Amino acid sequence: MKKVIIDCDNTFGVEGCDLDDGLATIYALGTGRCELLGVTTTFGNNTLEVITPNTHSFMKEIEMETIPVYPGHTTDAKQNEAATFLAQTVSRYPGEVSILGIGSLTNLYHASLLDSDFFENVSQLTFMGGVTEPLIIMGNVLDELNFACNSAASYEVLTHGKTITIATGNACLGAFFSKERFDRMGQSDIPFLRWLCEKAQYWFKREKEAFGHDGIYKWDVYAAAALICPEFFDETTIDISPDQQSMETGMLIGKGSTRKITVPIVKDPKAFEEHVYESYARFGMQNK
Prior knowledge:
This protein is α/β, with parallel strands linked by helices. It has a single domain (about 1-285), classed as Inosine-uridine Nucleoside N-ribohydrolase, Chain A (Alpha-Beta Complex), CATH 3.90.245.10. It has 11 helices and 12 strands. The strands form 4 sheets. It has a 6-stranded parallel β-sheet with strand order 3-2-1-4-5-8, sandwiched between helices. Strands 6-7 form a two-stranded antiparallel ribbon. A hairpin with a 2-residue loop joins strand 6 and strand 7. About 50% of the residues are buried.
């Protein structure tokens, strides 16, 4: 069972904000294949002042409040509780802890400032973020967020991190989740699944208004699955060359030094979609 820390900008339940961090956390717990050591909060979807209390509330709402939540910091590594937890935990279990980074990479950069061996001790870094070409949905070009919102930290992490897998925005377009299938979950006899379906409706509405399609891309769930259940993906090795300027837009191809990373490409989108719903159901059955 993988030891995992989720570093996220969770706004599940915050009106108008993405909910995929929360869906990724539920998915990870539902697989039964990871030991979630803690959740650390970073900014991105909103500010830390919104994200941290929201994450505490979310963990309580899904009855997982025994899993600790550590707040990040925007600028100061020494005041960053999340970075301290990351550095200390990875040092305690060298080569055993994987980190799922699905928001700004600030906490990971700060952890490396607190412990120069941080990246050496991490087993696996898996991120959702970055693009290798313009990200286009229904003719609309989307701005990259996760890497761009702290481009300096992203550059340092992508330059010095060791084993890195990135679920790029482009790759995540391979897994579209239809509203029809999601709504079927709401007809379940499992109360948690009905709750989850109801809580997610605002995001489907937003996506319909923004892009005109009846479904969502579960960006962060894609990254979580790539880390925890890699059998659903082909692991493609690519060269990236980020520089500080390219990171300002989340572009992984720049003028920096070339390095290899892994990009997961989903094998069978429908099989993957059903696997995610099975994980939600498993979590719901455990937490009736």
